[in-house]
Amino acid sequence: MKILRFSICTIAFVLLSFNVNAEEGVTKLEDIVVTGTREAEPLKETPSTVNTLKSDEIKAVKSTHPSEIMNRIPGVWINSTGGEGHITSIRQPLTTNPVYLYLEDGVPIRSTGFFNHNALYEVNMPAADRIEVIKGTGTALYGSDAIGGTINVITKAPPLKPEIEINPEIGQYDWYRLLISGGHTVGDNGFSFDLNATHSGGWRERKLYDRYSTTLRWDHNFSVTSNAKTIIGYSNIDQETSGGAPLTKADYDSRPWYNYNTFDYRKVETFRLSSAIESEIGEKALLSAIPYIRWNRMDLLPEWGIFKSGANYAGYESTTQFYSLGLLTKYRRDFEPLRSRFIIGVDMDYSPGSYQEKRLIVNRDTATLKYTSYRYDTSTANNYDYDAAFTGISPYTQIELSPAPSLRFTIGARYDDLSYDYTNNMSTSSNRPASTEKSFSHLSPKVGATYAVSDDLSVFAAYNNGFRIPSTGDLFRAGGTATTAVDLNPIKVDSYETGVRGKVGSMVTFDTAIYYMQKKDDIVTYNIAPGNSQRLNAGKTEHRGVEVGVGVQPIKEVGMNVSYSYAKHTYDEWKVSTTTDYSGKEMSIAPRQNLNVRMDYTPAFLNGGIVELEWSHLGSYWMDDANTEKYKGYDLLNVRTSYTMTKQWELYVKVLNLMDRAYADRVSKSSTGETLYAPGQPQTFFTGVVYNWGE
C-alpha cells in the first residue's frame, strides 16, 4: 500500500511539474450497438431499449465506483455497498437476486448459478471503451439471469500507432488510484493493455479497499476476412465488507462514520481468458466462435451474516470458487429478399465449483454495540461443504427481415438445457440436502419490430420471454428450507415494451420507453410455523415504468442531459405465512422516481476541458414489504471540471456530494422492525492529471 501511495504521489508531482471537450455520449439513431447480436447493428433497427456510455463520457467522469457512471442512464440505479461493491436496480427493485447478466465483450463474467451482485467490480470499468446496457429481458443470444438488464463492458481496441496514457489520482479519505493504458499495432497484430491500482481508506470505519486489475487485449488479422480478438482479464480485490453496513437511527444521525463491525472481509481473485474468432464466408455470411475460460475465488466473512443466536451472536466464514470452460458459437447469413438475416448458434458452459462455510461464535460489546471478536464454533460441524457443477447447452436462432424499407421485424427463440450435479460432502440434514442432480429447461420466444418514421424518428415494440434458474445458493444452502428448496423450478418472465427515439434538428436528441413485466413462479419462503418453513415457486410480481433520456445542446459550449424514470414494482401474489400476505403491496427499496440531470459548459479558455454540474434525485420508497414506513429519498449535487494544459496534459478536479448532504444509500427494516440506515458518502474531493503520449 505504501508503494502504491508513494508511486501515485510521485507521478502526480512529476506530471504537474511540466507545462501545464469531453463530449458527453447521448444515445442517437445513428449509433451502432453490438450487444444484442454480438456484432455491429444500427440502433434504429434494434427492437429493445439500449443505452450506450461512450469513451468520451467514461473518460470525463473518471468514475470511482460503478454507480458514478452507470446512474447517468435512465432507469438505472447502482447502489454502493462499500469499496466498489454494488447492488443493482434496472426494471426491478434494488436486489441481490440473479436477475442481471454482466458481460465483458459479450462473454458472461460469471457462470449461471454462481451469480454475484458485485460482479462489475471484477472488470476494469474506468478503462472501458464503451458500456452498453440492454434494459429488460435479453435477446435470443442470452438466457438465464437476463431479466432486469444486460450490462456489457467493452474493452478498448488496440490503437493504430503507439500510445500510452498515465492517470494518477488522489482524493480525500486516503484515496489513491493509478490508471495506465496503452497499445500499438504492428502489421496484423494489435496490442493494448489497461492497469488499475486503487486504494481507499474510506470515509467511515471498516471501509478499507484495495484493488489491482489488468486487462490485456490482442487483435490479430489472419486475412482480410478472418480475425481474432483475445482478452485476458485479472483482478485482485481485498476489502472490508461493512463499509456500507447500516446503523441505528441514533447512530446514523450523530456518528454516521461509526461501524458495529471490526473483523469483516472480502477477498476476491478472478481470471478470464476469451478469444473471439470470426471468419466471413463470402460476402453474406459470418461464422464466429468464442472459447473462454474463467476462474474465480472469494473468501468472505460478511457483516450481514451476523445474527442473534440465543443469548449470543453467530456468523459465518465462507469460501466460494469455480472455474469455467465455455464456448459461444454463432452463424449469421444475409439474404437479398426482404433484406433478411438468419442467425443460429449454440452456447455451452461447464462450470464446476465448490462452497465451504464455517459457523462462527461472535462476541459483542453491549456498550458500544461493536462485534469485537469471533472464534470458530467447534461444537458443531461446518454449515456447508459441497461441490456443484453447472452444465449448460443453449441453442438459439433469430431471424430479421424488412417487408418494407422502413419496417424491420426480429423473431427469435432460445432453448436452455441446464443442470447442476451437486455433491454434499457432509452429513445430510434439514439444512443440507443429500447429493443430487437437478435439471432445468426453458424455451424463450422473442419478437420485436422497428419502424423508421423518418430519418430523425424511429419507434419500436417488443415481447420477450425470459427466465432464471435457481442459483446454487437458492438450492443447496437454503438453511432450514434446504430439503424443499431442491425442488424449486425456474422463475419465468414475460416482458413487453415500446419506445420512441430520435432527434429534433441538430440540438435535441431523445430516447423513451414504456415497459410492463410480469414475473411468475418467483421464490417465496413460506413460514408454516416457528422453525418450520419451505421455499416455494409461489410468487408473482409486476413491474411497469417509463424511461426518458433527453440531450439538448443549444450552443456549442453548453449542453444538458436529462435521464428520468418512473417505475412501480408490486407484489401480485406474495403470501409468506397464513397470517402475512403482501399481495397488492409495493416492493421494498423500489423508488418510483429516479432523475439525473447534467449541465456541461466547455468554454474556450479551458482548451477543450469541461465544467459539469450533476444533480441526482432519488425518490421515496417503502422500507419494508408491509409498506409501513417510507424513506424520503435524497438529492445530491456533483461537480467535475477539467483543463487541457497542452495536447498531452490534462488536469481535473471533481467533488461528489458538493453540498455535503447527509443521506442514506439504503434504508430498510430489520426482522424485528428496527429501521436501519446505510449512510451515504459525504462531500469528497478528487484531483488528478492525465498524460497522453502518442505519435
How would you portray this structure in words?
The protein is 6% helix and 58% strand. With 695 residues, it is mostly beta strands. A hairpin with a 2-residue loop joins strand 28 and strand 29 (558-573). The protein is globular, with a radius of gyration of 25 Å. The two termini are 34 Å apart. Mean pLDDT is 93; it is low at 6-26.
Summarize the entry for a quick read.
The chain has 695 residues and is mainly beta.
Main features:
695 residues, Maltoporin, Chain A, mainly beta
| Alpha-beta classification | mainly beta
CA distance, first residue to last residue:
34 Å
Q: What is the percent of helical residues?
A: under 10%
Total domain count: 1
Superfamily at the CATH H level? TonB-dependent receptor, beta-barrel domain
Q: Helix tally?
A: 6
Uncertain regions: pLDDT < 50 for 5+ in a row? 6-26
Mean pLDDT: 93
Q: Supply the CATH architecture.
A: Beta Barrel
Strand content: over 45%
Q: How many extended strands? A: 38
Q: Describe the main β-sheet briefly.
A: 22 strands, antiparallel, barrel
Task: Determine and state the CATH class.
Answer: Mainly Beta
CATH topology: Maltoporin, Chain A
Radius of gyration, in angstroms, nearest whole number: 25 Å
Tell me, what's the shape? globular
